[in-house]
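Look at a sample.

——
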Amino acid sequence: MLTRIITALVGIVAAVGIVTYGGFVFALAVLTLGMLAWYELQRMAANKGFHVYSITGGGGVLALLVLTGWFCINNCDRNLLFPLMIMVLVVALVAVCFEGLLRHCNWGEANWAGDVALTAFGLLYCGLLFSHVLLLRSVQGPQVHFLRAMEYGEALLWTVLIGTWASDTFAYFVGCAFGKTPFCSVSPKKSFEGGVGGFVGCFVVVLFLCIIGIGVPLWQACIIALSVAFFAPLGDLIESILKRSFEIKDSGKLFPGHGGVLDRFDSLLFTAPIVYYLLLVFSIF
């Protein structure tokens, strides 16, 4: 427990510094986390005999994150970014299939479908989803004054981050106090009562931050809060079933007492893209 607390405190201090500074430092941090997540996925898959391709798959993840980071740092036109992201994904997926074909024909690797499918999944999971953390941080808007002056994108990212932490925290404490009904076979220790506590707690926290902190209209704040409260535990369950499929307890050991990158950022990988696209929809209407 002491190790978990120390790691959490160090992580919070580092997160505050990196998120606040933004720019190149934040982009480099997300790039590093994305590549480490890719490495963790590769190692987990190897535990069940799958080969996730480093060159084409890892190269595709790297290209996606570098491309998105460059556009966000330089505040370039997003109308150009999204076609380029699709282009990178298409080229990377074709390259993955080609590498799989070469490996099958020249080195006799038998599990072509499984290896290619997992590599393609890694491109989306570690590359595309992580890139939306960069996109959310770089959203332009009026300066926000809540506790201190901060950029609009920073305030949005903090809202999502605090919301996902609230989801885990409320679920844990409510589950410990009242949990009796099993919630999901994927994660046997989680209870229905804890899930409800996490959902309600996350909803209230995000709603408060959206209205009081950022000044989002009530109906939009409710939709954002409901989305974060739903997708935060979903991201956690997806990563849990991924680990169970590979018979792995933790995705890595980067954060002592907490596991790896995927263990710590599984919820954010789902909530950040959802909130980003909700904001795009709100701007249309």
Observations:
- The mean pLDDT is 91.
- The two ends are 47 Å apart (CA to CA).
- The first helix runs from residue 2 to 21.
- The CA atoms of residues 38 and 122 lie 7 Å apart.
